[in-house]
Write a structure and sequence with these properties.
The chain is built from 6 helices and 7 strands, in the order ααββββαββαααβ. With about 160 residues, it is an alpha+beta fold.
């Protein structure tokens, strides 16, 4: 087996895997119903073309008072919408909050995977394995993990 095939695949298509597309409506339903599901929350972003609010379930990574969202599958629709809108509404545990979103540059993304997501995942049972299997991300290689994956830091709108 080559070294490349042992690594997680770098997203190129911006296409969410079928298993995730099938599970997302269930996840969204449970979150709307108030079922706590780890770091997951609802993120509502105004559509860049339609102007209509679009809501998706995402993992909201919170560490030391800072928050991020990231896209394991690259340039998906919510990424394009958030990039265009620059802000979103978070709905977590029945609480809503307006946030601004700043996209991390390539160097900052490596830091996110190395210093934030990697250590956080290692502190949660099975999270590193989950990231590898479900998200296709090897958190032991932050440089590779950052390639082609978008990360946004979220800050409260004051």
């Amino acid at each position: 087996m080559s070294a490349r095939s042992e690594k997680a695949a770098v997203p190129t298509s911006g296409q969410v895997p079928t298993r995730v597309r099938l599970f997302s409506p269930i996840l969204k339903f449970l979150l709307v119903a108030g079922v706590p599901l780890g770091p997951n929350g609802l993120v509502t972003i105004r559509g860049r073309k339609s102007g209509l609010p679009r809501t998706t379930a995402l993992a909201i990574i919170a560490v030391e008072g800072r928050r991020w969202v990231w896209a394991p599958w690259g340039e998906v629709q919510w990424v394009r919408n958030l990039r265009a809108a620059g802000r979103a509404t978070l709905s977590v545990k029945g609480r809503q909050e307006e946030v601004s979103a700043t996209e991390l540059d390539p160097t900052e993304r490596v830091g996110f995977f190395r210093d934030v997501l990697g250590p956080l995942a290692r502190s949660i049972p099975f999270a590193v394995l989950f990231a590898r299997i479900v998200d296709g991300v090897d958190l032991d290689d932050p440089v590779e993990a950052a390639k082609g994956r978008c990360v946004f830091e979220l800050r409260p709108v004051r």
